[in-house]
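Hey, sorry to bother you again with one of my protein questions. A protein chain has come my way and I'm curious about its shape. I'm sending you its amino acid sequence along with the backbone structure tokens. I owe you a coffee for this, so here goes:
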Amino acid sequence: MPDLSDATNDHQSEIPQFFAGSNVIITGGSGFLGVLLIEKLLRCCPDIGKLYIFMRAKKGKSPEQRMKEHFDNSVYDRLKKEQPNFEVKIKMVEADLSKLGLELSQEDQELLLDTNVIFHAAATVRFNEALRLAVNINIRGTKELLLLAKRMPNLKVDKRIILVVFLSFTI
């Protein structure tokens, strides 16, 4: 049984240390888990680098409009009080996981090369989604993201994270 007596002391957690100075890509940032992930990373990892949040046009709204509305969510209220300038760490990247190359601009592709961590939480979960679209988003999107990741020289690799990615393919 591990000794948990040390768990309540003031030593900095490994998580903020891991993310200190790291630039992070997040897909699916407008979904339930994505919103919570963004808030938690920004609030609990004050030394995190940039968060590159992939966003696409949806329901007649541009990625810029969606991103602006994104931070009106009450989940971010505590973060806004504790870190009023948190948005300087955010960069919206226009991307579409259902498209080849994620439809990233050349400028964004180059910008993303300094990424250290990727959280891929985007997927379609609609049971009535057209099969081709579901495959394009859930499978091709993951493949395109992995191809992009192969070009990132500073990607932090953690065996535990790779295992989670592998398991998600088997479900």
Observations:
- Strands lie at 24-27, 51-55, 90-94, 117-120.
- The two ends are 31 Å apart (CA to CA).
- The chain has seven helices and four strands.
- The helical segments are 14-19, 32-44, 63-70, 77-82, 106-111, 131-150, 159-170.
